[in-house]
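Project standup — Tuesday

K.O.: blocked on the structure for the chain from last sprint. Re-posting the sequence here as requested.
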Amino acid sequence: MSFSRFLKIKILLIIAIIFTSCSKTDPVTGEKILIEPDPIEKAKKAAAEGKGIFGTFGKDLGKTASGSSSVSFSSSNVLWRATLKSLDFLPLANSDYTGGIIIYDWYSSPNNPREQIKITVQFLSDDIRSDSVKVSSYKRICDDKNNCVNSVSDKNFSNSIKDTIIESARSLKIEEAKKEKK
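H.V.: unblocked you, prediction finished:
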């Protein structure tokens, strides 16, 4: 094979790849979907449709199919609700639903006021699985003069909290399924 023939084949392959990479096929309908290669045009089209990097925004935010304005927010995420339900005795310091994190403030039981715990729950997925939630817990022990020492709690403690959240999420999911059947 001559070099010029090899070069022509290579150029044809590159052209074919370029043309086919700008479109994809819809798996349901089988229709070709053209993808805009120009990022500026793509951004203008998304803005015109009311879409952004965080999904739909603007006047259509929270609109349901019937047109009523109803934001489901955290009520739709079972793990989020299960965490709030399981750890409702802890003081809430910060929560960020879009960031997927709940941070609880220091808590001490009335039986042992010198020992405090702090818990952070991070959501890695919406699935009800043990690897969907990451629980970090910290312990603070203070002496009589309020000199405190902070440390990471035992992993077993964090795992037991995670297990409680997962069990609560499963219970909530079962309750929802029963309500939907009625």
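K.O.: great, moving the ticket to review. The longest strand covers residues 133-142. The chain has two domains: 3-56, 73-181.
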